[in-house]
Inverse folding.
């Protein structure tokens, strides 16, 4: 079996419905709050953290909740609003990975495998995602990061409220070991009881048992849960796409401080990334600018901090000039404020259903640019990569035209 080390993020809003209500109704903040019906047959749909301190939980009968917390405030809730907020949330998720698996309205797995080169270390990406949710939605969210989904989910629960916890591959076993067997996916209350009768109380107990013992006691199911208990799970985040991002970067021989000196490089990288997008028949929703500061923060090759800034486009693109424009904007608006040693441009938020779906308005301009890009790509293919370097430094349309002219008298192709 090939061992792929994956990077999975589980992102989950804290007390979602209750948090939305507290955000929109300041008088409810800091108070025990339940979203749900207060009537005799009502059930708690969500409980604020203030209410949880009294033992109020979601799915609890409202009567029981009121008994545990007499000062509990009930609000009926507004599902249409929560759905709208959920759509905003998933829009943010999509900026961070094209592989987003929805678990519920306020919860998803994001596959970050392979995006570290572009987006930076997973923990940093997780913090950025939390920041985005705070800034755009004013709501708390918790994030768990781990090599497997089950552990990422347990980690996000452990990080609550409003926190982040990363469990690296080498920490997985130690993290799982003390947890009750009931935390293993697929082990419900009845199975847990059964396992405990057999002497398996913690996940560590299961992880340490031999395969033979487990098969003997529990059949194939025992072997399956033992894999989970050992932190081995090959279940991937669904909605998988081959490439998660395209990027190109350059390390300088000498550090660069002046932004205008970086502009040509931004354009060059943008064009190169765009060509690869077109080659693979995909378009990107998100443009990323990345740089490495020349200011060392720690010893070793990894001691230079890496930064990324991203922007999301209204329409997905595979056009180098569009990518360059956005990346250049990021460079000036929120780019480096000192000397840097590396610069990169990347695209993520990929979509493959684009070529025939150009926007109705302004279609002619987009379609023209699209045709032009494809023409240049064909020529580049015929004349090889040598043409690329020269292309990238000039204006896209000018170059495209000049290449088209050249095409008539191709002497030495
Ligand atoms: Mg939640």
């Amino acid at each position: 079996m090939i061992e792929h080390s994956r990077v999975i993020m589980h992102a989950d809003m804290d007390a979602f419905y209750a948090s939305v209500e507290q955000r929109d109704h300041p008088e409810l903040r800091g108070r025990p709050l339940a979203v749900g019906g207060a009537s005799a047959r009502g059930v708690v749909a969500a409980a604020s953290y203030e209410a949880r301190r009294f033992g109020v939980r979601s799915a609890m009968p409202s009567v029981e909740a009121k008994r545990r917390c007499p000062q509990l405030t009930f609000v009926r809730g507004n599902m249409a609003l929560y759905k709208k907020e959920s759509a905003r949330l998933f829009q943010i998720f999509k900026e961070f990975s094209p592989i987003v698996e929805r678990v519920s309205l306020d919860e998803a797995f994001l596959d970050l495998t392979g995006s570290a080169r572009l987006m930076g270390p997973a923990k940093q990406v997780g913090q950025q995602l939390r920041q985005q949710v705070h800034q755009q939605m004013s709501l708390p969210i918790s994030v768990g990061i781990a090599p497997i989904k089950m552990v990422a989910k347990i980690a996000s629960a452990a990080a609550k409220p409003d926190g982040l916890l990363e469990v690296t591959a080498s920490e997985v076993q130690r993290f799982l070991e003390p947890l009750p067997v009931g935390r293993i996916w697929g082990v419900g209350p009845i199975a847990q009881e059964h396992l405990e009768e057999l002497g398996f109380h913690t996940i560590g107990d299961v992880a340490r048992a031999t395969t033979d013992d487990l098969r003997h006691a529990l059949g194939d199911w025992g072997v399956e849960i033992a894999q989970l208990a050992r932190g081995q799970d090959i279940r991937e985040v669904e909605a998988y796409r081959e490439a998660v991002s395209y990027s190109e970067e350059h390390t300088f021989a000498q550090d660069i401080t002046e932004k205008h000196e970086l502009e040509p490089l931004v354009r060059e990288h943008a064009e190169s990334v765009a060509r690869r997008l077109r080659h693979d028949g995909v378009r990107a929703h998100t443009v990323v600018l990345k740089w490495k500061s020349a200011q060392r923060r720690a010893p070793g090759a990894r001691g230079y901090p890496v930064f990324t800034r991203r922007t999301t486009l209204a329409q997905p693109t595979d056009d180098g000039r569009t990518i360059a424009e956005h990346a250049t904007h990021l460079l000036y608006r929120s780019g480096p404020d000192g000397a840097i040693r590396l610069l990169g441009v990347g695209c993520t938020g990929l979509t493959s259903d684009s070529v025939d779906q150009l926007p109705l308005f302004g279609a002619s301009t987009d379609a023209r640019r699209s045709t032009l890009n494809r023409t240049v790509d064909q020529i580049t293919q015929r004349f090889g990569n040598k043409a690329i370097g020269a292309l990238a430094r000039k204006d896209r349309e000018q170059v495209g035209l000049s290449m088209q002219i050249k095409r008539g008298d191709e002497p030495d192709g």
Remarks:
- The longest strand covers residues 245-256.
- Residues 16-79 form a domain with the MutS, DNA mismatch repair protein, domain I fold (CATH 3.40.1170.60).
- The mean pLDDT is 82.
